[in-house]
Each structure stands twice: as C-alpha cells, then as structure tokens.
Amino acid sequence: MSSLTTWPLNRKQTVALLRHWNVGEFVFLREAAGTASPAVIVATRRGQYFLKQRSPRYSDRARLSYDHSLMRHLARAGLPVIPALRTHEGSRWVVEEGRVYEVYPWVEGRPFDPESRADLVAAADLLARFHQATAGFTPAGKKDLPRLFHPADRLPEIAEARALLEEGIRPGALSVSEARKVLDYLEHTAHEVLQRLPDERYWALPQTIIHGDYHPANVKYEEASPEGPAEGQAEPGLKPARRPTPGCPVAGPAHRALLGDGPVSRAATASRGAGPAPPGETSNPGGLAEEEVASGSAIAGLFDFDWACRQARVKDLADGILFFACPRERPLAGDLAALTQAPRYDAERVRLFLETYQARLPLSEEERACLPDLLRERWLYVRLDAMHRKVQREEKLRFLLPQVTEPLKWMEGLPPGPPP
C-alpha cells in the first residue's frame, strides 16, 4: 500500500525554487514523511528548512492568507508555532507552474511518547491554549469550510466499498459475508451519528478556530528544557514559545469526564496561573510522577494548519482523545498505516487529557454530551476517507476492514447524553 507523497521536483528545480528565499547555499535534501502534501527537508550552509508543496485542495489565495495570518497570530500569542519564511518579495509563499510552495525553519524535536503522562498533559494543555488564543480572532483571508468529517460524506464511501466487494476485490482475512456485516455496521453508525448529531445541533456548539488535525504527527516535543525557538527561527516581534502548563489532578472514571459529573479541582486552576493551591490540595498537576513534574514536557512545535477553521471546538477534543489519549500498537508517525491504526480505549489517559484541557477551558454539558458521537464520526473519516482518496483500488478493502469496528464499539459504550 502506497501512502506517502513523493517530492515532485528534481535537485536542479529545487535549488532554483529555493532562490526565492534567503536560506543560503544548498547542500542536500531528504524526503519528509507526509500523506497529503509533498515535502522535503533542505540543508543549506545556514541550517535546515522544511520545504512544502501545498496540496491543490488547500491552495487558493484566500485560504493561504487565512492560514498564514493564523500562524503569525499564534506565534505572537506565545504558542510554539513558527510562521513560514518570507520570500525576497515579502510573500509567505511562492507559486511556480500553478503549484504553491512554502519554506519553514526546521524545528528539532522528538516524537510524542505514548508512555509518557507528561507528554499527554502537554498535548492537552497546548490544545486549550490554542483555543484560548483563537477565541475572538479573525484571520485575514477566508476559509469557510463545511462541517469537518461530516458523517453524511461517509455514505458514498461505504457504497464504494460495497461495490468493490461485489466486484470481487478481496476483503483480506474476512469472508465476503463477514465483510458485508462490517460495512452494514459502518453504515448504521454513520446514520446513527447523523440522527443524534444533526447539523443544527453541531453548529450550535461553542465555536472557535480549531486546529482540525490535532495528532502526534503534527507535534514535536523538546528534547531538553526549552529555551524558546532556536536562533533565527523566530521573527522580530514574536514571543518565544512558552513552556506548557501541566494539567490538573485526576479523579473519577472517564465517562464522568465526558459527562462532566465531577468538578475540575482548584489545584488545577492554580496550575494555570491563578495563584497557589489552597492548603491541603496538591500542586502536582495531572498526578504526575515526581520525576515527570521536575522535567515536564514542552512542545517544540505545532504544525500543519491546512484544516484550521471555525468549527465546534470540541471537535479538536475528539482528535486529542483519539490520537493522543488512546494507545495503539505502534507510534503514530506520518505514514498512513500508522495514522489509521485502530485505537484502544484507556480510561485513565482519556480522563487525564480531558481534565487537563478543562483546567483552562471547561466544557459545556452539551459539548460533553456530543463528544462520543464526534469520536465516532472522526474514526469513520479516518478509515473511509483514506480508503477513498489514498489507497490503491486492489488494496482498499484490506485497508478499510481490519479492526475498523472495534473503536466504534467502545465509543458506543461511552454515555452520549440526550439531544437537547
């Protein structure tokens, strides 16, 4: 199964393209992982840079203006976001033969450690800070996207899978009858989410500009104590990235976090800068081990704003739970097979992520009620959209079907809350 994009330019073309930026003499390049936009890491005499060709799906001028305005705003707000470099002409992007290219300073860092509670806390806290920073902000340009991951969009993809099955495309280890039952279950789930969470209910949820693709492949962690962006990476007037504030103590089962049956502790509020915790309450955020509190986890960079737009903010929470809090067999790298692994439910980690986020931004009862269905529509998107757009025809069913129903079943077990 081919899942990574390929850089479309040869060495000579890449060197010519780089002359638009003041990045120094070219030395070498290497491919960067990615499933949507081709990219390379370029080494020059001045350092390393990330050169990206934007997908045509995200490359109209209004959307480019929006994304770059948002990135600069986030950097000014102190988040670990590095804006694209300006060209000699002052633009944040270059158009060559109808394709859009951007250059970013390369950010060193390590991947998310799924065994680290401190890394999980840092991811949840950064997401809350992101939503705080975008509240009330209106970027330049325009990016009026419809409801992301809409369950209605999954129905044609399920129909595509049914047609492939009837045409004789092999369903992997499943029999044809078993494969039909899986597709029936996916279709039933999509219809159920549509019924429980129609558009009018979705758009009535609290909104802000969300990241839209919040997962570990779009985050890097500091190797050691952060000192802000490396020399030459921050532009004049931009604040260095702040160390994330860890989250709050945890208590109660995960479904209580989803439904909000337990208040966020005052110690959690203290961790976000409201003063010391009252006597008798712990200042150990997130219930972390002593060595984790001492070292913490700081995020070096947050990337990929192609899907950032105004949506229900709790949609990002579903991403955070699905990709950061729920473990998988292998790390979530930037390849399609890794990103689409079936997640396992971990009540402790889900609770920790949600309570850390709510130490800064408490969720409404309606947001908590809708979260399980947002998890289901996101997981349906992960497998079905990838099958439709990124997998070769003969491999589509073998990609889609394995373990696709397992996350949906544990998501069904979460108390969803009644419609209003």
Characterization of the model:
It is a single chain. The chain is an alpha+beta fold and 420 residues long. The chain has a domain at 59-83 and 111-148 and 196-412. It has 15 helices and nine strands. The strands form three sheets. The protein has a five-stranded antiparallel β-sheet, with helices on one face. Helix 10 (314-325) crosses helix 13 (365-390). It is globular. The termini are far apart. The model is unreliable at 225-295 (pLDDT under 50).
Radius of gyration: 22 Å
How do the SSEs run, as a string of H and E? HEEEHEEHHHHEEHHHEEHHHHHH
Q: Helical residue percent?
A: 25-40%
**Low-pLDDT windows of residues:** 225-295
